[in-house]
Amino acid sequence: MGIATRLELTVIKDNMKAVKLYQKMGFQIEGEKVHSLIIDGQPANEYYMYKLV
Predict the structure, then answer these.
(1) Which of 14, 22, 42, 46 lies in the 20 to 30 Å Cα band around 29?
(2) Dihedrals phi, psi of 45, to nearest 5 degrees
(3) Where are the domains of the chain?
(4) d(Cα 30, Cα 25) in Å, to the nearest integer?
(5) Are 48 and 29 in contact, with CB atoms under 8 Å apart?
C-alpha cells in the first residue's frame, strides 16, 4: 500500500465559508469547473482544491 501525499476536494465556488475554511486548513485552489452543477435551476461552478501532505 502507498502513502497518500495529496488530498483533493471540490467545493461550490459561491460557498465562500467552505472555501475559506478549506484554505485555512491548507488547501489551495487548483482550478475551476465551469457549470458543473445545476442548483435551483441555475448553473454553478466548482473549485478543485488540493493539499499536499
Answers:
(1) 42
(2) -100, 155
(3) 6-52
(4) 15
(5) yes
Spatial separation of the C-alpha atoms in residues 43 and 30, rounded to whole Å: 20
CA distance 7 to 35: 23
**Structural contact between residues 23 and 3, judged by C-beta atoms closer than 8 angstroms:** no
Amino acid at 30: E
User: For residue 50, what are the β-bridge partners?
Assistant: 8, 28
- Whole-prediction pTM value? 0.88
Give the cell for residue 51: 493539499
Indicate if the alpha-carbon torsion angle 18, 22, 23, 27 is positive or negative: negative
Q: Rg of the chain's alpha carbons, rounded to an integer?
A: 13
